[in-house]
Amino acid sequence: MTEAPTTGRPEVTAFFEPRSCSLQYVVADPASRACAIIDPVLDFDEKSGATATRSADALLAFIRERGLALDWILDTHPHADHFSAAGYLKDRTGAPTAIGEHIVKVQRLWKELYNLPDSVPADGSQWDRLFADGDRFRIGGLEASVMFSPGHTMASVTYVVGDAAFVHDTLFMPDGGSARADFPGGDAGALWRSIQRILSLPDATRLFTGHDYQPGGRAVAWESSVAQQKAGNAHVRGQDEASFVRLRTERDRTLPMPKLILPSLQVNIAGGRLPAPESNGRRYLKIPLNALGDAPWG
Question: Could you list the residue range(s) of the whole structural domain that residue 128 is in?
Fold first, then answer.
């Protein structure tokens, strides 16, 4: 947990979740002390099937200790490598949840893959608000806007809050390059265009990424700037759309699927809600077999 120094701009505090290398953020208005949570993690151990709320509770403890008021619980996209804690935090705080409006496309795709019943809605109603490209909202006195950023997923959005932009898995730190685009509904060309749109923001804009895999074993990092990304991003500098798509596609062929993609999407298309308990009181995840292509040994 590290807080970026700030005067007259959003206070951004990052929380690193090491199991999935995820960054969660508390974004606060220094004047009103209102805040938003972005991309909270619900802890899950795939070996035991145990869930826990340690990561989400740490966010709530920080908000309480700092005397902040929670205005929003925001997800940038339906994550493929961890469970969202949006549902849990909504239950604890009553704060509204939000995600990009194209989540309905992801819901429909994965509802078919999971063969979920008609009783499971695919209309985005699991969130309080579905943001369209260009929508504006407020975090206390801070104005925030939504930038549709597809490519990694069909539903990805970037939240721009003052001089800070939360770019989820579109851009990593410059030495980490960019996110993969080979999940169902992903598109490397759309990812390139989303990156260019983000890099059209002012050079001094602070960019906060959704993951850091610590290339070369360096310390965890999460903040860069538009200028730094333009000058040094390992996948973007010196590329055009065609060469980027080629680079991204070739790289994605070498990557295994995230180990939690099948458990995670079932939870995350439901707004971070675990499946309902069955007759014995237990909850069960449904795993479609042979749904995502060949196994690594194929």
Answer: 9-264
pTM over 0.85: yes
Question: What domain count does the chain have?
Answer: 1
pLDDT of residue 171: 97
Distance from CA of residue 36 to its chain's centroid?
14
Strand, helix or coil at 187?
A: coil
pLDDT score for 298: 47
Residue 279 lies in a domain: no
**Residues shown for the chain:** 298
Q: What is the pLDDT of residue 6?
A: 35
The CATH number of whichever domain residue 19 belongs to comes to 3.60.15.10
Which residues in the chain belong to E strands, given as ranges? 2-3, 11-17, 22-28, 34-38, 41-45, 50-52, 69-74, 83-84, 97-100, 129-131, 136-139, 142-148, 157-161, 164-168, 206-209, 223-225
Helices (H), 233-291: 241-253, 261-268
